[in-house]
Amino acid sequence: MSNYAYAIPHLIAVCWFILCWVGYSRYASWRARDTACLASVLHLYREDWMRRMLLRDNRIADANVIGNLERNASFFASSTLIILAGVLTVLGASDRAVSLLADLPFAQPVSRGVSELKLLALAVVFVYAFFTFSWCMRQYNFAAVLVGSAPMVGERNVSDQERRAFSERTARVISMAANQFNYGLRAYYFGMAVLGWFVNPWFFMVVTAGVVLILYRREFHSDVLEVMVFTQAPIAEAPKAGPGGDATP
Fold first, then answer.
1. CA 37 to CA 219: how far, in whole Å?
2. Coiled coil: which residue ranges (predicted)?
3. pLDDT tens digits, residue range 227-247?
């Protein structure tokens, strides 16, 4: 097999991977504008959270929630650095990695250069994840500052319109941080898909499509979304009048 024919499946798989990742991210952002999904529903809950926070004198619980969210992003950022260290370690011993991968079922034999290219692609995915999680941490820091600067209940020089604008602005900042966290998690999902490339490019494409299907199912049709979606309680029927004109129970 010529080098050109050997490289074609890998190029197709890489293009399919990029198309699925970028395409799904664009589609999810566009669909969330007018469709109930985890991102849009949670933003509504954050707006309710901020409006209720302005009615409380004690905001310690709210600050603790922001801190917990920031620690989650910090955990994933630290884990990403550990993963990158492991990928770079394997990259330094690529010959041994190639020999180990050759023993996998359905694994396509590859050269050392192609194996190193796959490891570099995996490293790029997790570098993106690290920067995404670190930016998420900073945005949660910004949200903590906003919570600390929230007007108190007894402040008379703050109008209701200003309080409403403040709650919407703070909820928006928290949602932006949550979106960055979501992007980082997607990078983890697609990073798992890159592992399929070490078997063969066609398996890589199948796993990538599977990741898109899982993400779509969880963001737009998950059970937890059905629970969180706000549904108006049915209006109770008016009691019927009895024979004497009194309402029956």
1. 6
2. none
3. 898 665 454 454 444 444 444
